[in-house]
């Protein structure tokens, strides 16, 4: 039996901070003791279907009977009960099972554990809807105040007027290097590995991730 970890972050802010991915990895490793592989879907919403999650599809594809797909929490599978049910079905067809580092009723298929999983999935969907409503309200309030809406691209910081962007010298150097590497044909993954090897420190995280590089190249 082998254990694979599946990590997911839904927003650019979570991806850029790295906290989501790093914390999920640590939780999965602590629960499993050893991981045979780690699969990351970065910038993927919890309501996104299985067909649009390349890392999860790859992880499920290599599962063998008796294997475990480990997540830090069940909401990393998704925040839509239908999506989660489809993922569970795909894993079960491989003869494997999904485990949560937080427990959450994934220890068995007893009636009480199944009920626990369904309740957790329902609350995950409810939380997604609440977050969406709060986000829309916050954006409307910012728009009324004339403040900037959206994330702050790597290489910049928000000005005192809460609208303008000011270049951040140290990050601008890395930003330009990333763009040069990308224009020369390097992949997002290759650039992330290069920066990690050089010891360059990303904003608010321990390691560079491909999605962070992609955000820089597209911003």
From TrEMBL:
Keywords: DNA integration, DNA recombination, DNA-binding. It holds the Pfam family Resolvase. Residues 2-146 form the Resolvase/invertase-type recombinase catalytic domain. The active site is at 10 (o-(5'-phospho-dna)-serine intermediate). One of its GO terms (biological process) is DNA integration. The keyword Nucleotide-binding does not apply. The keyword Protease does not apply. CDD domains: Ser_Recombinase. One of its GO terms (molecular function) is DNA binding. InterPro entries: DNA_bind_recomb_sf, DNA_bind_recombinase_dom, Recombinase_CS, Resolv_N, Resolvase-like_N_sf, SSR_resolvase. This is Resolvase. It comes from Allochromatium palmeri.
């Amino acid at each position: 039996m082998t254990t694979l970890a599946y990590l997911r972050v839904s927003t650019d802010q979570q991806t850029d901070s790295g906290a989501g991915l790093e914390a999920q990895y640590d939780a999965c490793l602590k629960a499993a003791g050893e991981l045979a592989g780690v699969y990351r879907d970065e910038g993927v919403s919890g309501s996104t279907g299985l067909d649009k999650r390349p890392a999860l599809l790859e992880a499920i594809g290599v599962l063998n009977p008796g294997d475990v797909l480990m997540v830090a929490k069940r909401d990393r599978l998704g925040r839509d009960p239908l999506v989660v049910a489809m993922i569970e079905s795909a894993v079960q067809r491989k003869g494997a099972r999904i485990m949560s580092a937080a427990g959450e009723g994934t220890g068995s298929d007893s009636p009480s554990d199944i009920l626990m999983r369904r309740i957790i999935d329902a609350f995950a969907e409810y939380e997604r809807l609440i977050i969406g409503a709060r986000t829309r309200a916050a954006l409307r309030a910012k728009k009324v105040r004339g403040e900037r809406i959206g994330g702050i691209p790597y290489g910049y910081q928000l000005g005192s007027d809460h609208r303008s962007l000011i270049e951040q010298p140290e990050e601008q150097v890395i930003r330009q290097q990333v763009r040069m590497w990308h224009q020369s044909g390097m992949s997002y993954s290759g650039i992330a590995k290069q920066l990690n090897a050089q010891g360059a420190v990303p904003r608010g995280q321990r390691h560079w991730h491909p999605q962070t590089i992609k955000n820089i190249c597209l911003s």
